[in-house]
Amino acid sequence: MQKKFCFSEAHVGLVFGAGRGIGLGIVKALVEKTDVKVHALYRNEERSSDLFEYYKDNTDRIELHLCDPNSESSLIKVSQKLTSIDFIINSIGVLHDEKKDINPERKIEDCDVKSLMELYQVNTLISVLLYKVFKNFFKKKDPTLFSSVSAKVGSITENGLGGWYGYRMSKAALNMFLKNVAIESSRRASNISVVSIHPGTTVTNLSKPFIGKTSYKLHSPEEAGANIIGVLDDTLTGKEAHFLSWDGKTISW
Ligand SMILES: NC(=O)c1ccc[n+]([C@@H]2O[C@H](COP(=O)([O-])OP(=O)(O)OC[C@H]3O[C@@H](n4cnc5c(N)ncnc54)[C@H](OP(=O)(O)O)[C@@H]3O)[C@@H](O)[C@H]2O)c1
């Protein structure tokens, strides 16, 4: 019989991209709404000052790890410090960068191979590395969870607007990876719920340049974190990955 992953039965989880934005919102929601121990992984000290501030009042619930998620050896070092994990949530992602080397493309002439490769590296391949390095932690009878924050614009079915080639393609590729993980893990008798989650339009550095005229509902990172935890709770394990929106609705792949 298929089991469900529940935060109330989990003990330990990892959040990647915890330094700021939605990742930090997820850390806060886990601390405030569950009893789990949170391993918060961040890459850059300067950009993670809000995480450090929050950590000061929650040292019993959070363990901080500096880690480069692009590096397999850096991830292996973290994995060697841990004895058990019930879930991983990866909130790392990129749409544009500070140096303006990466910008959402409006037309094919805007597509630059180096930028596209970087989008794949961050939005797709980091999740691949995470599952590869931590997969043995998921070999347990109790339900576990592997989730990456994706985006609705990665839906192939729902793409009616076009544009944003690199971001859309890299999130669609992330979704395909997650579908594969669910199938492979069920063959290996692991009990994982695999979820690609759309956080909703959330006010962070990633979205700020694009939300001026949006008609979508805007969320704070804290609201997005709480929504994500609510939606991930009680998801079915098994060979079918889920693509879910912040409001609990299913998105077409
Ligand atoms: N905000 C939205 O409206 C929205 C909508 C749909 C989907 N999403 C998705 O939500 C997730 C979180 O985004 P956010 O809005 O919280 O953005 P954010 O505030 O810009 O945070 C991005 C996170 O990704 C990490 N990151 C960026 N480039 C990286 C790289 N090259 N290597 C390693 N880590 C890197 C950042 O770490 P550093 O601090 O070290 O740079 C940070 O933790 C992303 O997957 C994004 O695609 C966001």
CATH architecture, please?
3-Layer(aba) Sandwich
Count every helix, treating DSSP H or I runs of 4 or more residues as helices.
Answer: 6
Broad CATH class: Alpha Beta
Shape: globular
Structural class: alpha/beta
Percent of sequence in beta strands: 15-25%
Q: From the structure provided, what is the oligomeric state, counting identical versus distinct chains? A: single chain
Mean pLDDT: 96
Bound ions, cofactors and other small molecules, one mention each: NADP nicotinamide-adenine-dinucleotide phosphate
**Helix percentage range:** 25-40%
Major sheet size, sense and barrel closure: 7 strands, parallel
Describe what you observe in this structure:
This protein is α/β, with parallel strands linked by helices. It has six helices and nine strands, in the order E-E-H-E-H-E-H-E-H-E-H-E-H-E-E. It has helices at 21-33, 49-56, 72-80, 113-134, 165-187, 221-232; strands at 4-5, 12-16, 37-42, 62-66, 87-90, 144-149, 192-198, 235-236, 242-245. Helix 3 runs parallel beside helix 4 and helix 4 (113-134) packs parallel to helix 5. The radius of gyration is 17 Å and the shape is globular. The two termini are 25 Å apart. The model has no long low-confidence stretch (mean pLDDT 96). NADP nicotinamide-adenine-dinucleotide phosphate binds at residues 17, 19-23, 43-44, 47, 69-70, 91-94, 122, 149, 151, 198-199, 201-202, 204-207.
